[in-house]
Amino acid sequence: MRGLATYHKAIATLDPGLDTGRIKADDSERTLAWVQDLDRQLKADTSGRDSVAKMLTLLPHYLDWALRLPEFLPPEQVAECDRVMIHGDFHAFNVAYRWHRFSACYDFDFCRRDLKVMDVIWTFGFTQRMFYRKKYGKKMWKDDFAPPLNEVEDLETASLRWFVGEYRKVYQLSKAEIALLPGLQIALALYNMRFFALSNSEEECLEHFGWFDWQRKRLERTAPAFQKAVDRVLKE
Q1: What is residue 203's predicted lDDT score, i.e. its pLDDT?
Q2: From CA 181, how far away is CA 120, in angstroms rounded?
Q3: pLDDT attached to residue 124
Q4: Pairwise CA distance, residues 120 & 224, whole Å
Q5: End-to-end C-alpha distance for the chain, whole angstroms
Q6: Which residues pair with 85 in a beta bridge?
Q7: CA 28 – CA 51 distance, rounded (Å)
Q8: How many Å apart are CA 129 and CA 92, to the nearest integer?
Q9: What's the number of CA atoms in the CB half-sphere (13 Å) around residue 85?
Q10: What is the pLDDT confidence band of residue 3, given thresholds at 50, 70 and 90?
Q11: Burial level of 223, CB count in 10 A (0-12/13-18/19+)?
Q12: What is the DSSP letter of 208?
């Protein structure tokens, strides 16, 4: 968390000159067009692949999210948030430490100019899982794992409070940016869909379907609890 904040602070005034042209978190038109194009590809496919059939059952949920993206990320709220050259994949295996302190990061395959909090919501996911593992252990990986929503809200609040506190020891994270996190969970799920391609192996396509289906189920169940957690942190 402090490592991510250190990175954001270091590149806050960086002018890259050129943008990568990648789809931004709040670019609702291009996001919707991408999902619709995947829908057309899947419906036109005649291979009989199991991954295609499974993705076709899942895609309506993502199409709905794409259509509602401006609702999840209101333009007037987005306008209050910083845009930087985000890392795009900031986690423990893409950073280096020296004397037990963050010293560098690497693997910039997903680097792009986007909302700073897209990095935050991605890296925060690892913090969430750390808190869940501490409380539930290996049970959290079972298919029927569904803790009571009041426990989910408490865990989400505790993990977000810790993350924000650590981040702010190094760099600013505004209330407007924190308030956008629930909507960015949806934007991140839509972004992750771009890993799917019919040119990938069937094994990889099935793995991606499992990831996307897990995202959908988790968000549909826990999104209200996370919104309450964000509200609680904002009031503190």
Answers
A1: 97
A2: 8
A3: 95
A4: 19
A5: 19
A6: 113
A7: 26
A8: 13
A9: 15
A10: confident
A11: middle
A12: H
Q: Tell me: the pLDDT tens digits for 6-56?
A: 999 988 888 777 677 888 999 999 999 999 999 999 999 999 999 999 999
For residues 1 and 20, give the distance between their C-alpha atoms in angstroms, rounded to a whole number.
25
CA 49 remoteness from chain centre: 28
What pLDDT, in 10s, does the model give residues 76-134?
Answer: 999 999 999 998 888 777 778 777 777 777 777 888 899 999 999 999 999 999 999 99
- Gap between the Cα atoms of 119 and 85, Å rounded: 10
Token pair listed for 78 = 């987005």
d(CA 180, CA 21): 23
H-assigned helices in the chain = 2-11, 28-44, 50-67, 69-72, 75-78, 116-136, 149-168, 175-179, 181-192, 202-235
Tokens of 178: 């924190």
